[in-house]
Amino acid sequence: MAKLMGPEESNKFGVSFAKKLGADEAILITVISNERMARFANSSVTVTKNVSESGQVVYLAKGGRRIIGSSSNPEKASLERFIELLYKSMMSLPKDAGYVPLPSQGRAYRPKATHDRKLESAEGLLAGYVQEAIASAESAGARRTAGSLEAGVTTHHIMSSTGTVGSDTSSEILLNIRAFTDKDASGHGLSCAASVRGFDPEMAGTRAGYHSKKMRNARQLAGEEKAYQVLMSPTVAANLLGLVGEFASAFSIEAGTSYLVGKLGKKVASEDLDLTDRGKGDGCLDSRTFDDEGQPTQSTKLIEKGVLKRYLHNLSTAKRFKTKSTGNAGLIEPGPWNLEIGAGDSTYDEMVKELRHGLILTSNWYTRFKNYRTGEFSTVPRDGTYLVESGKVKAPIKGIRISDSLERMFSSIRLLSKEREWVQWWEVDTPTLCPWVLVDGVTVTKAYGDSPSQGS
Amino acid sequence: MLREEYKDLADLCVREARRLGAEYAEARIHGGTGTGFLLKNGEPQPSMLEDSFGIAARVVVGGAMGFSATNLLSRERVKDMTARTIKMTKSTSRLVKEPIAMGDSKLVKRKVWVAEMEPVAGADPNWLKSLLLEVDGRVAKLGSGANGVKIPNRIMAASAGVEEKYVVTSDGGKVESRVPRFNFFAILTALKGGDAAQRTIQQGETGGLEIVKRIRLLELVEAEAQTLAEVLKEAEKAPTGIMDVVLSPELSGIAAHESVGHPQEADRILGREGAQAGESYLTKDSLGTKVGSKEANVSDDPTIPHSNGYSPVDDEGVAAKKRRLIVDGKITEFLQNRATSSLLKVRNNGASRSSGFDREPIIRMSNTFVEPGDYATTEELIKEVKDGIYLKSFTEWNIDDKRLNQRYTGLEAYRIKNGETTNLVRAPILEITTPALWGSVKGRSKRLEFEAANCGKGDPMQGIPVWTGGPDTLLSGVRIVGGG
What we know:
The complex is a heterodimer.
Chain A: H1 7-21, E1 25-41, E2 44-62, E3 65-71, H2 76-91, E4 108-109, H3 123-139, E5 144-160, E6 165-182, E7 185-193, H4 201-214, E8 226-232, H5 234-241, H6 243-247, H7 250-255, E9 275-278, E10 299-304, E11 307-308, H8 315-320, E12 338-341, H9 348-354, E13 357-371, E14 376-389, E15 392-396, E16 400-405, H10 406-411, E17 413-425, E18 428-446
Parallel strand pairs in A: 4-6, 8-13, 12-18
Antiparallel strand pairs in A: 1-2, 1-5, 2-3, 5-6, 6-7, 8-18, 9-10, 9-12, 10-11, 13-14, 14-15, 14-16, 16-18, 17-18
Helix pairs in contact in A: 1-2, 3-4
Chain B: H1 4-19, E1 24-40, E2 43-44, E3 47-61, E4 64-70, H2 75-92, E5 109-113, H3 125-142, E6 150-169, E7 174-192, E8 195-206, H4 210-214, H5 217-234, E9 236-237, E10 241-247, H6 249-261, H7 266-269, E11 298-300, E12 323-327, E13 330-331, H8 338-344, E14 352-353, E15 362-363, E16 367-370, H9 378-382, E17 387-391, E18 394-399, E19 405-410, E20 413-417, E21 420-426, E22 428-433, H10 434-439, E23 441-444, E24 449-457, E25 462-470, E26 473-482
Helix pairs in contact in B: 1-2, 3-5
């Protein structure tokens, strides 16, 4: 077996070899990650996992041509062969209209030890946290639980032919737990943080257990399609508002897969809504100091008082939009790092009292779009879902669907809570700091099971 | 490329795991090479090349399961990883209330080699770029605005590559596979005044570059663009209420996948995916339960040649077979892996797959479809409908996590009057429970067609290639809502 190179050696070799081949520009990013996970179902651990990976992303440019490669083999000879293949493939292509040269002056990013070292070897911690979460859910009423706990540390090492060099390490711990009391009664809780300091498995378990108990004997809503006031938990609001990060990517704008096309400087939400993308900072789970083009990440206000202020850019899209990169590369597609929804001034209890004819949603899944350009979508609430009449919780509800458009919903935001929570899980890719959000006039539908020949 | 020395590492991993006390051990070298190309509004984006291999180890120790993976492929690393996996698994065995056993499934020693008439290695970036530019050119011409409709936004991606695996288990399974694939994906956005319509197209098969001609990719995408423009230009408001609905193969397929395939995955039924992907409206005692009419017949078949979900041997070394999920309206079989079939004391039908070396194998669908019926043609089936809708393609869809409450929004959809399709209608919505949908099946045509898809499940998420398909399927007396 050949010798495996370390990340800095690999980057240095890759950049120098690409230059030797004749590349005008080269970026090597080596990502080292170590993730541990414990999954459980029926309150029993089903599997523990440990995945250690080292991957290289290689960007080459020559005479206005560009190419990107991704390799997982840190052997010198393999990387050499891979870069040769990339270079040869690139030279067979015509010039790329989207090519923008890297800034001539590179940057040095000094590694800062801001991640939680406890998460570097978390096996012992995971077992304890799983036990704590399950016990909390059961104390709150759960009969059984299912979930996953994941902890990991990721380091990005970058080097470019223009002199950019540096590394950046982030850590995160994520718990997602679901509690059940019967087939139709479930609750969901999650906790995610960049360090064990902000991580709370007891809260997540208790919340899941509480809703699983409250959801017993859930019923269908009467009647057909109707508009309701909807109070969305941070988990639900982060799923929908978090999509703005993707829709605000200049790539989505150019591709026509965004309802924000042509809306820059226009009102796209209630004036109570502020939404910011943050590369790094307190609590950020996916903390990055530099992007994939070696540009510094920053804080970018996307929506301010309901007005769309910026799209997210890399160097290439920024040139076409006659603006500056926002430090959100993606070599092809700029994207968000961490999203922060501005806090409001309401408490949860005050928001519930505002509901005349409303629903409280604590979790959702399977958000799909009829049309990305118009933002029309539907999503399926699950776990704790409650009907509220005149400010009072009346009954747990099952079998509903939200069918609306993002712009209409965000324009009808009436209240946001003071308290916010970080959300990241299966349905929320981009870590999002999010409050409870009250929206007026949301269209709620349900499935019909009225086939005359059913069971025949 | 899957090297011999990598296979030695997998064998070493299994030996080491057994030596260190594992009751069961399995190692998988898994990876591949491929090339992708993307066009945005006709403009080439940087090409992408991928070369990735790694090793996965899965062990059972004291009834607990452990999984580790790395792409650092050296003897020292693999030995170290194996030892750590055993230690990690032992340390969590006290948290296992339901001990895991892999059972005695019939294992195979086999090589799976998918033939290529035109090797995918020929799909260099330039070849893919030229193909996409040709497809895009046809769409752009159609959407030039001459008929009042523009298609200014076109995302098109194509990729070709080879997936290779070597799976070895401590109880005798040994499988080596090499599966080439070609995939195409597009999102087309058509505009007319302030109105917009969008179509997502996905095509994928196993085999060589001959796939491009076999599926008539250029003509297919051109026809889709033509239809999209017509929908925007001509579709009228859809009727609502109770009516007969004919589902095309595309709609039959997505319904089969979402509301039959998923709820019949045994790991969901047993609760293992409860936290994210969800559970099932069915229980382990649901075999033999009636969930549909006599005409409801749904299968999953991993052995279909060229199929996107082709996997004749699974990632646990078990030979896969066609699974009859619903026969004459009754549930007859669940999708199984070694652990679930052992627990449920049924025959293992080999449905365990993983998306890469860094993911554990879990129960997955392959090619899930409504079985074809007796009606010779689509037209003959439509003749049965006095007043209804033919749903030919869909946009938005979703379903709850127990797989009971689903929604499909039509894109290309026609009003049926007196047994014939008439005008296009705009975005009719079928929002229906699973028993109501399958209980209303009244007839099926003979034609069987498939669509490619990526199915998501697992934690961490695993996207896996599948086909969904079926014939035209007549639903009697179901409710159509929305439309506009």
